[in-house]
Amino acid sequence: MSTGIKLSRVRNGIILGMLIGLTGTLLGLSGVGETFDRNIGLSWLFHMRGEITPPPEVAVVAIDSRTGSQLGLSDLPREWPRSIHARLVDELVRRGASAIVFDMYFNTPRLAEDDLAFARAVGDADRVALVELVTGKRQPISDAQGRHTGSVWIEKLVQPLPSLVESAKGLGTFPLPKVDAAVYEFWAFKDSVGDAPTLPAVALQIHALTVYPEWRSLLEQLEIPELETLAHTVENVGKAQQLRVLMRTLRRALYNDPAASTKLAKLEGTQDRSPETQRLLKSLTRLYTGNAQRYLNFYGPPGTIRTVPYHALIHGSDPNLDADALDFRGKTVFAGFSDLYDPGQPDRFYTMFTGEDGVDLSGVEIAATAFGNLLTDRSLKLPGTVQTGLILLAFGILMGSLAYLFPAVTGVPVILTLAVLYALLAQWLFNSGDYWIPIATPLLAQFPAALFLGLSGQYLLERRRGQHISEALGYYLPESVARDLTENRSDPNIFDKVVYSTCLATDMSGFSTIAEQLPPGELATFLNDYFDTLAQPLKRHHVDVTEFRADAIMCAWTSEQADVEIRRKAVLAALEAGTAIDEFRERHDLLKSSLRIGLEAGPVYIGHAGGGGHFVFSIVGDSANTASRIEGLNKHIGTRILATHAVVESIDGLLLRPVGSFQFVGKTDGLPIIEILALKASASPAQVELTKRFAEALDCYHEARWEEAANEFERILSDYPDDGPARFYLARCRQFLAGAPQPDDPHVIRMDAK
């Protein structure tokens, strides 16, 4: 392969890679691509990773379909006296819970005594977070004249009972954005309601109040201007409203400072602190400086986070639990509806860990998952838009280029191996670092496209190379032979065969004289032009074999059996070749004579001839030899195109002139020869008249009426002075009239020269 071809192939491979890379990038960054990778790629990563251990600081207290009967209460939790929740709070405080989160909405007053008991327990615990709702509606916008000019979506927070708001340590909403009925993300702060912290974020802040002095010390070193407005000690933090002010203030101050995360990270390591304190400080830093919306890093199927039945805490024991299961020291507990057996539980969300039995993760378990992600800084990390684009672009370029440049036998295993390695890398990053890089788009879109287009490109390239080779061989061999050689059928013996053919022989009259007048280089140019001019009509009529012999051409149209069609093609090619050479003579004054062609039909041998490892493709047989003799006859009788009767038989539309039977040197019988003058459709009246008058004169000759025949031929020449056959026969008649020996058979003319 030449350097130019190599560079061209490399260029094409890079172009293909760029195409796949850019297409994959556009797809991956589009909404369709994001959905594709989320629904397929992320699901695959989670399933391959499997269940992981959630942080021990989080637990769920579950209300399920059996809780009411176990407590001797209604099956509907909304009908329970709220004093039962007070008992739960007291029990969790007694068992050492660091934070208690109710994923239940208490907005409707019930029995005052029970509501008061619950509020008192919440206030005394000083660690309870309650949920508040987010409601939204579209509100019209009007101009100064009161005309509606548009609308805007407005959201607001709806808090629980005032007594509970005053008692709770924190309030937080927990809306979950659904995508195609599934949940993938959560909010840490809800910007549509003034950066209000959500329930998992509030739970983390309450849980981390144990390190509030260290946290405030870090903030003082960071020199946050708003710090003086915040509580100086954990005792001054206050209840829910004060906690919200603290969290909103910190969020706005730290999130709007791009360097805050780096500065805090450096400050965290400047003092000797316990690992637990360091982790909590890091969690707070990531909470306030990180993105508001984050991808959930699920721990596993329903029940992966330690789940304790509600009634087990009320009763103080459960036969299905050991003592450690009820130890909640230092744990944040989420209480809410969670049934690990009922697919129809009221608060459920479809995730990639929804079981085959249809049991979804409950809302409270997702809230606990979000808290665990914030606590350990293990929510999923995604590359930015630029990084994602670069990954997809590089993957596409690599895959597309290799698929095109490498031969299929090595290219397919190579890119398949690279695809597997990329999948393993993506899984390793996901498992070890919670990094989610694109996987569905590269492996399910770019990889198949690279494989298909690369192999298709190679096929087209090889096909084009084969065509080029076939075309190159076609300059020297028949097209069918060149095609077979290109397809690796290279045994010369398979091309040797005896076929029926119409042979056409021609040579250049006066070649020796021309060769004497031209230098070798100019002679070669002259010959190439001559042969190219002559080859065009032959190719137009689909000649099968063309053999160049010095200044002559021998060619053949072949078929397995006698076929009038190949004879017709040869005749038409001969007529057009005569016209083409006439035009050639107008370009080249050196060529004085017109073309001479001989045609014969019959069996010939087509195949290789030669030895010593070098062969030529040749036409061998009596038909080829006879065509050459007939071509030479033109010189003797002054004609252009001569053929045997076998050639023109059954071909309509030709103006023909029989010129007699000739016995060539070495032959035992005479052969009827026909002159092909023109197509009838284009023949002139003079040509038609000539054939009629010549036939009458030839009849006289065949009857040995020499004087009468001579007179007829003289009259023809007076009207057609350039007619070669009339001049030929007139000369013979005069010889016989002058006393030359007369032939035994006037119908056959014996040739004494080739």
What does this structure look like?
The protein is α/β, with parallel strands linked by helices. The protein folds into three domains: 127 residues; 310 residues, no CATH class; 173 residues, 2-Layer Sandwich (Alpha-Beta Plaits), CATH 3.30.70.1230. It is built from 25 helices and 25 strands. The strands form seven sheets. Strands 17, 18, 19, 20, 21, 22, 23, 24 and 25 form a nine-stranded mixed β-sheet that branches. α1 crosses α2, α1 runs antiparallel to α14 and α24 runs antiparallel to α25.
Layout of secondary structure:
Layout: H1 3-29, H2 31-49, E1 58-63, H3 67-71, H4 83-94, E2 99-102, H5 112-125, E3 128-131, E4 133-142, E5 148-158, H6 162-167, E6 170-172, E7 178-179, E8 182-183, E9 185-187, E10 189-190, E11 196-197, H7 199-207, H8 212-222, H9 240-255, H10 260-268, H11 275-289, E12 293-295, E13 307-309, H12 310-315, E14 332-337, E15 348-349, E16 361-362, H13 363-376, H14 385-405, H15 408-433, H16 440-474, H17 479-486, E17 497-507, H18 511-517, H19 520-540, E18 545-549, E19 552-559, H20 564-587, E20 596-611, E21 614-620, H21 622-637, E22 641-644, H22 645-648, E23 654-663, E24 671-679, H23 685-702, H24 706-719, H25 724-737, E25 748-750
Parallel strand pairs: 1-13, 1-14, 2-3, 2-14, 3-6, 20-22, 23-25
Antiparallel strand pairs: 4-5, 7-8, 9-12, 10-11, 15-16, 17-19, 17-20, 18-19, 20-21, 22-24, 23-24
